[in-house]
């Protein structure tokens, strides 16, 4: 999907393209992928491992574009295509005046939130806030009694996924995008997100990996999503996340079409009055 950018400006496009390149670390050519055990990498980001080795391949035109590796230095692991989708969706709600703030539930180093705030800045939006929700302590250990779909998920074993809120705040500051319209929501989603019920959203982006994290975010955030607003699901390719999305949509009778972004990400746009 490509949003109508109203002609836009060359300067705006250059800035946002540069921001995406910096956040993904694709402006550079040094080896940037974090080494992890092959079986865990296969489980979490798909089979892109060199045969017999535990090293992720760094290829700025493939693995990084598709979000199939973990950057050592970049501020996001979702890849160029999913970042472009975020830009398109934010620009669509700006162009069409869809009311509400923007939130990512599952932030890692904060790269997606930085891009969201950068898009608002590039378009001169002075009103919307960007919410950054995360445990800021890594992926929680699965609660398999309550959520058996999460059994066997090993993301909690990877220490580099635990990025503290102060580091994320500093990353916003590095890009000149930290202000009072960037709001941090800290804690496990089942404990932190209920405080946001009733808030109005134009875009909700989910990147919590687990069934639990995905369903908790949908239950607490979806009712506040404006007609014409977007739900973006980063981990839709993975069974536990997809099951949470499908269960929620079925329970709520949501029938808007799900569009794929790349091998992992997907999104839909909320219908209803005004659409």
Shape: globular
How many separate structural domains? 2
Q: How far apart lie the N and C ends?
A: 17 Å
Overall mean confidence score, pLDDT: 89
- CATH topology grouping of the largest domain: Rossmann fold
Question: How are helices and strands ordered from N to C?
Answer: HHHHEHEHEHEHEHEE
Q: What CATH architecture label of the largest domain applies?
A: 3-Layer(aba) Sandwich
Beta-strand level of the residues, as a percent range?
5-15%
| Biggest sheet overview | 7 strands, mixed
Strand order of the largest sheet: 3-2-1-4-5-7-6
Per CATH, the class of the largest domain reads: Alpha Beta
Let me know the number of strands. Answer: 7
Kindly describe this structure.
The chain has 275 residues and is α/β, with parallel strands linked by helices. The chain folds into two domains: 10-66, no CATH class; 79-269, Rossmann fold. It is 35% helix and 13% strand. It has nine helices and seven strands. The protein has a seven-stranded mixed β-sheet with strand order 3-2-1-4-5-7-6, sandwiched between helices. Strand 4 (201-206), helix 8 and strand 5 (225-233) form a beta-alpha-beta unit. Helix 4 (79-96) packs parallel to helix 5 and helix 8 runs parallel beside helix 9. The two termini are 17 Å apart.
